[in-house]
Amino acid sequence: GFATDEIMPQDFPNSVYWIAGHGSGHRMEGIISPVYISAVWLDCGADEGILWLTADIVGLTNIEVTKIRSMIMASDVIKGCKLINFSCTHSHSGIDTLGYWGKPFASIPSDGKDKDYMEQLFNKAVKVSEEAFLNRQAGKLYAGQKAIPNGLDAGRLFADRHEVLSRIRFAPENGENETWLINIGAHPNSLGGSNRKLSGEYPYFMREIIRNEKGANVHFGIGAIGGMDAPEFDKEDKLNCIKLQAKFFAEHAMAVEEEKELVPEIKYIQQ
Asked: Which H/E stretch holds residue 182?
């Protein structure tokens, strides 16, 4: 099952929102693209399953994730949920959901989180989780990878770069739209410190390209990530740069060929 919904600020520009990244005190002044939260439900047998959520935000503390998990587990709609994972695209052009980037350093201590926006995020997390559960249907899962040479750009010294795009593809039996779970270790960080507009950066445009060309739902989240960015395809026009990044990654995602069908077994390790 898959579901998605917007997590846009409801009263912009009347309320103050802070950009999450590249120094404190950067007030959001406009919008480049909408931002979303999505959820995937995966059955794991015996009328049980797991939920994976991902949102176009920079991150959350374990306090917020624990609250989201408790709200989802209290749902009267979802039954048999064994595990809830929450990922972020880690966009540095999103709204501050950690509190680090609120006010200029002279005002420390400060908190850049907007209470109403956080509540909206929590409620939307429950909403898409319930809809993903209700949207579940039978089908098959396929896993594949695609090498992405020169697909990562590090401003720091790394011995190795995991230049691989991973894709899990769900093909429903009824022939409806597929759902793709995509992972790339490339930090959405290219609009830079001068940006004052809300954006999901390349993940938003990548999802749109795949949806328009393949009709597939795209669920994208990043795991542990440091200074590994997407390539700077256009150093002068940053908006064009993130669109070129999206095109680059979307083309590789759509070019995955050697897939293996997955058996209905899930193993999970958390540390």
From this structure: strand 179-183
Distance separating alpha carbons of residues 173 and 138, to the nearest angstrom: 6
Report phi then psi at 28, rounded to 5.
-70, 130
The phi, psi pair for 254, rounded to 5°, reads -80, -10
Predicted confidence (pLDDT) at residue 14 exceeds the cutoff of 80: yes
pLDDT tens digits along 179-212: 999 999 898 989 998 999 999 999 999 999 999 9
Query: Could you tell me which residue, 133 or 22, shows the higher pLDDT?
Result: 133
**C-alpha torsion 82→88→94→96, nearest 10:** 70
Residue 111 CA to residue 97 CA, distance in Å, equals: 9
pTM for the full predicted model: 0.93
Q: What φ, ψ does residue 183 adopt, rounded to 5°? A: -130, 130
Give the pLDDT score at 58: 92
The C-alpha atoms of residue 82 and residue 43 are separated, in whole angstroms, by 10
Q: Rounded distance, CA 19 to CA 197, Å?
A: 8
Type of residue at 260: K
